Amino acid sequence: MLNGTELKLFADANVLNAMTDKQVKILLAAIEVFAEKGYANASTKEIATKAGVSEGNIFSKFKNKRGLLNAIIEPVINSIFPAVLTEFKTDQLPLQFVTLHAFVDSLVRDRIQFLKDNAAVLKIFVSEVLYNETVRKELLTKFPPLYWHNINKNLNQLKDNHLIVNWENLEILKIIWSVVGGVIIGYLLFNQPLEQREITHIIDALVKSLAR
């Protein structure tokens, strides 16, 4: 079952403004069915039944099953993903960190909470990123320039203070992304646990691997 935050994601991105109540029900039903069964194994009939509407209501707004998937994926790429990064760069990255642990904790912990709060939508999204090259390429264009500016600034400050390995910033980020990405895939696609103990271990492992 959805936890209720998925609808807020789309509402905050103004995706629901042009939708009727019935169309919103279809969107939410599609999120639940795609997340549970995967896109390939889902049917518009099943989605319509879960939404309490006829299949014709799906076709009139979303055209087909792929249209429904696009209605979920495109807002994530175009609005939700950039907005999350904007929130992250302004609220989660102070201008300077006293310790490497504080930096990694800030980088990881709240984003993992966002992952847990919006698991159904992100499971669908991650599956498309993994298997759809077009989606991967489009995603790379959505990182706000200020995100890169701020995270590079923080990494440079950590290096100036001899708190982190003196590698290229992109190399450091690749290490972080590979660890966090593995955790995300494990949680979303393989139902691996992600409680506070596991999150603490992830942060500790990254700190040990990146410490000067």
How would you characterize the overall build of this protein?
- It contains eleven helices and no strands.
- The chain is elongated and about 60 Å long.
- With 212 residues, the chain is mainly alpha-helical.
- Residues 89-93 have low confidence and may be disordered.
- The protein has a single domain (5-210), classed as Tetracycline Repressor, domain 2, CATH 1.10.357.10.
- The longest helix is centred in the middle third of the chain and has 28 residues, at 65-92.
Derived structural class = mainly alpha
| Total helical elements | 11
The tally of domains stands at 1
Distance between the termini: 44 Å
Please indicate the percent range of residues in DSSP E strands (runs of 2 or more). Answer: under 5%
Q: Please give the radius of gyration in angstroms.
A: 19 Å
- Mean pLDDT, as a whole number? 87
Order of helical and strand elements: HHHHHHHHHHH
Q: Unreliable stretches, pLDDT < 50, 5 or more residues?
A: 89-93
The CATH homologous superfamily is named Tetracycline Repressor, domain 2
Structural topology:
Elements: H1 5-12, H2 21-37, H3 44-51, H4 55-62, H5 65-92, H6 100-117, H7 119-131, H8 133-140, H9 145-160, H10 169-190, H11 196-210
Task: Please give a quick description of this structure.
GO terms for molecular function: DNA binding. Residues 43-62 bind DNA. By secondary structure, the chain is mostly helical.
Distinctive features:
single chain; 212 residues; mainly alpha; Tetracycline Repressor, domain 2; 76% helix; 0% strand; elongated; Homeodomain-like_sf; DNA binding; DNA-binding; HTH_TetR; Transcriptional regulator, TetR family
